[in-house]
Every structure is written in C-alpha cells, then in structure tokens.
C-alpha cells in the first residue's frame, strides 16, 4: 500500500487519481498518520470476514433452553392473585 503525504498528494493529485483509476490504491497521510484511502469506484469491495463458530466448544446450550414449564411461565405473570 502506497502512502502519500497530504502536501505531496496536493501537488500530484492528477497522477495519483490516474493511478487509482487503474487499480493502484493509496493512503493519504498527514504528519505520518493515515487519513484516507483512495481507491477506484469500480474496485471490488473488501470481503467481509465472518467469524462463525468463534466460541464453539466454549459454551454449552442446554437441550431445553427454549422450553419453560407452565409453572415458570405462570409465576412470571401471576402478580399475587388469590
């Protein structure tokens, strides 16, 4: 990844835009810190990394976790009726 200081980017904007349009992206920096990434509009979007199963085997879900007994449900809604 090419890094270009903001002052240099101002001076060479046309050349940098031409390169970006051809697929060569670059990062504009200010005082050594990255500010923006310049890419062509038709460049492919970055692939999103999905972390499926990242806590596999670290937790255990009980077989009946989605089933509550009538007594438990009743106690949630029973507000001291006699």
What fold name stands as the CATH topology of the domain at 2-38?
YefM-like fold
Task: Supply the CATH superfamily name of the domain at 2-38.
Answer: YefM-like domain
Q: Could you give the distance between the termini?
A: 73 Å
| Uncertain parts | none
Q: Assign an overall shape.
A: rod-shaped
How many individual helices?
Answer: 3
Which structural class matches the secondary elements?
alpha+beta
CATH architecture term of the domain at 2-38? 3-Layer(aba) Sandwich
Description:
It contains three helices and three strands. It is rod-shaped. It is α+β, with helices and mostly antiparallel strands and 82 residues long. The chain has a domain at 2-38: 3-Layer(aba) Sandwich (YefM-like fold). The protein starts with a strand and ends in a 5-residue tail after the last helix. Strands 1-2-3 form a three-stranded mixed beta sheet.
Task: Provide a quick synopsis of the model.
The chain has 82 residues and is of the alpha+beta class. It is 28% helix and 18% strand.
Any chance you could write out the topology, listing elements then pairs?
Layout: E1 2-5, H1 6-11, H2 13-21, E2 26-30, E3 33-38, H3 70-77
Parallel strand pairs: 1-2
Antiparallel strand pairs: 2-3
List descriptors.
single chain, 82 residues, alpha+beta, YefM-like fold, three-stranded mixed β-sheet, 3 helices, 28% helix
